[in-house]
Design a protein that fits this description.
This protein is an alpha/beta fold and 693 residues long. It contains 26 helices and 16 strands. The protein is globular, with a radius of gyration of 33 Å.
């Protein structure tokens, strides 16, 4: 559903048109003007917000063009009801609106033609095409952005002029408005004409693809990260970008959908988006030795068909979900998992993936998570409550928010000795379920009320000077970040973004440094005892892990990631399966404190945090961490690089063997031609004069 404001705007649009008809029939010029103003403003608001309700209106045959046409027809009806049907202004209005709609066709055709001609067969980032082909500037954004809406709104001059003419009973304002509308419509069409031909359009596809091959020949990529998926799955490739940047071999990211490229996180790795399967299959990737796949999708076949490289499924996170043991994985040369758990998962599933083809490489993405050294002496223990969202169904096991959330938070904020509580809900919490939204709001109120009570408790004292300095530092960092973000500049369109898509490495590194500094300043900007609700994307989940001493969560990848810290954690059995069955079904909870919905078991978690000698699950967590994620040494990125290098050598050995075989066959053919002059020697693929095929 849209926001309340969007729903209200949509309602005003739909109710405004009956009001327009009523005003036209009465007739009332001022009533019509008021209703028209409401529909114009509400329509504009919905488009400016990019509301999905705009599309919904189109589905019920109340699309943008229809809404404007109906308003214009009702204006003609108003003029007729005002007994102006025999006046010249009446015929002028009809002629104006016919001419205006006649301009819509060339306008729409030109906009579509410009966009199609500027859409190149590939889009890139960090690939130098600028020195190889000429890519002209994009048309001004004001010409193409929301072009249909802008063109239709040019009727405003005619509508306003005609209403003034009707109110004053003078035709001149109406003719002025008509002239302005027609003139502006013609000028808009003429302004688009230069961008459909000549040097205003990028080179044809063949030339662009040749430039890409030329760049590939110079760069000589060795390891490819290949990804295809919907725009909502962009996180699956984003999680591997930093790993690609740290490879010892030359990396390349290949995407198949433009929507993914638009959602790609900033990276210094070269990126090529190739939507066309034929274009990809014709691309020169002869230097690539290892291809990594983050998802099992049908389009993988376009690269899997290349025999000169080895193909590896790396996935997008280990879990006990069925997606982690997809039978599709048989097509790869190897499957890389984080730890032994992934190997055992395939063995139990028995989906045809051989044990010899599984390599344990750890999870490089978890490198930012710090291992636990105990609670620092200068602050009280911190417990993170990070529940997942309610999911797409009403399964009580999806989230602890509904049945246990308030009990968990109430127990934590009332703990004695005291602890600090950080509440970081999943960003989707409450988006589907009103009950979950209500529970989230009550939990937020609990945390904020407890924070207010603690602020007034004389036992807790804040360091005002430190907090003030940290807040000033946050302001400084945010200003620098905004300045650097603005300096990167906006790209006119995809073609221009490809031309200017070379990342400024210094700026990229500076932004990363500022993010680290911002995170440190954020945690200093309020007392170390203050309960807090963590909202928004920053601070990130892993940052919350690092300042916490324990966590309470639900079955999700959050738990698997937190295990990397080695800290105590609890997981809620919201579906009330029972401890043994809950652990049997979920590997990641085998070293957790299992909570019932009343959260009465939280004391065991808090005891483990306060006193390491009371931490009965410490050894179990260490064993589970190694089982799920592999050993700490060598580091995961070192293991990953070793696996890439080893598989690359296998690919090279295979290719050299194939070259030697072909060379031997050609030499044998030449020798036979010399021994048997004048006789045709059967070539490879032919037997007794019959060609096999």
């Amino acid at each position: 559903m849209g926001s309340a404001a969007e729903l209200a705007a949509a309602a005003l649009v739909m109710l405004g048109f009956p009001c327009l008809m009523l005003a036209a029939l009465v007739p009332s010029v001022y009533g019509f003007a008021a209703a028209a103003a409401v529909t114009y403003l509400a329509d504009h608001y919905l488009h400016r917000k990019g509301s999905y309700l705009v599309n919904r209106l189109s589905k019920v045959r109340a699309g943008l063009s229809i809404r404007f046409l109906i308003r214009q027809l009702l204006l003609v009806l108003l003029l007729a009801r005002l007994s102006l049907s025999n006046d010249l202004i009446f015929y002028g209005a009809i002629a104006c609106f016919i001419a205006f709609y006649g301009l819509q066709a060339p306008h729409g055709a030109l906009v579509t033609l410009i966009r199609n001609r500027r859409r190149m067969p590939v889009a890139t980032r960090n690939v130098d095409l600028k020195s190889r082909i000429r890519i002209p500037d994009a048309p001004p954004r004001r010409l193409l952005s929301r072009s249909a809406e802008k063109m239709l709104h040019l009727d405003l001059a005619a509508v306003a002029g005609l209403l003034v003419a009707a109110a004053l009973d003078k035709a001149l304002p109406g003719f002025i408005g008509i002239g302005v509308t027609v003139l502006l419509g013609c000028l808009y069409v003429l302004a688009l004409l230069p961008y459909v031909r000549g040097r205003k359009i990028p080179p044809h596809a063949k030339k662009v693809l040749a430039a890409v091959d030329d760049w590939l020949a110079d760069y000589k990529p060795e390891t490819v990260l290949y990804f295809s998926g919907s725009k909502d799955s962009a996180y699956q490739v984003n999680m591997w970008l930093e790993t690609m940047e740290q490879l010892d071999t030359r990396p390349l990211v290949i995407l198949r959908e433009r929507a993914i490229l638009n959602k790609l996180a900033p990276t210094t790795a070269p990126v090529i988006c190739v939507p066309g399967g034929v274009h990809l299959m014709n691309m020169d990737l002869s230097t690539v030795r290892v291809a990594l796949y983050a998802a099992n999708v049908g389009k993988n076949i376009h690269l899997l068909r290349v025999p000169t490289m080895k193909h590896v499924f790396i996935g997008h996170g280990d879990s006990d979900k069925l997606a982690s043991v997809n039978p599709y994985s048989k097509v790869y040369d190897e499957v890389w998992t984080a730890g032994r758990a992934g190997r055992d998962r395939y063995a139990i599933a028995d989906v045809g993936v051989r044990d010899d083809d599984i390599v344990e490489v750890g999870r490089p993405q978890l490198a930012p998570i710090q291992t636990w050294q105990g609670v620092p002496e200068d602050r009280m223990p911190t417990v993170l409550y990070a529940p997942t969202w309610e999911g797409w169904d009403d399964n009580p096991g999806n989230t602890s928010i509904l049945l246990a959330g308030e009990n968990i938070v109430r127990t934590l904020v009332q703990a004695d000795p005291p602890v600090r509580v950080l509440y970081k809900p999943h960003p989707f919490t409450g988006t589907r379920s009103a009950a979950a939204k209500g529970a989230h709001q009550r939990i937020t109120a609990l945390v904020e009320q407890a924070a207010a009570e603690r602020a007034g408790d004389s036992r807790f004292t804040a360091d005002a000077a430190t907090e003030a300095a940290a807040k000033a530092e946050l302001t400084r960092i945010q200003a620098l970040t905004a300045e650097l973000s603005g300096a990167s500049g906006g790209k006119g369109d995809e073609a221009e973004a490809t031309r200017e898509g070379q990342v400024d490495v210094a700026r990229h590194e500076e932004m990363a440094r500022l993010r680290v500094e911002w995170n440190a300043a954020y945690w200093r900007s309020f007392p170390s005892y203050e309960h807090r609700v963590i909202k928004g994307a920053q601070p990130r989940l892993y940052d919350c892990f690092n300042v916490s001493d324990a966590m309470v969560s639900d079955i999700s990848s959050v738990v698997s990631d937190f295990i990397a810290s080695g800290k105590p954690y609890a997981v809620t059995d919201s579906a009330e399966l029972g401890v043994e069955e809950f652990k049997r079904q979920n590997t990641a909870v085998r070293a957790a404190v299992i909570l019932s919905n009343d959260a009465s078991e939280l004391g065991g978690l808090l005891d483990a945090v306060r006193d390491p000698s009371a931490d009965a699950l410490a050894e179990d967590r260490a064993e589970l961490k190694q089982y799920l994620l592999g050993p700490d040494e060598p580091t995961s990125i070192e293991q990953f690089n070793t696996a890439v290098a080893g598989l690359g050598r296998k690919a090279e050995t295979r290719n050299l063997g194939q070259e030697a075989r072909v060379a031997a066959a050609e030499a044998e053919e030449a020798r036979l031609a010399d021994v048997l002059p004048g006789q045709r020697v059967a070539s490879a693929g032919e037997t007794d004069g019959v060609t096999t095929g």
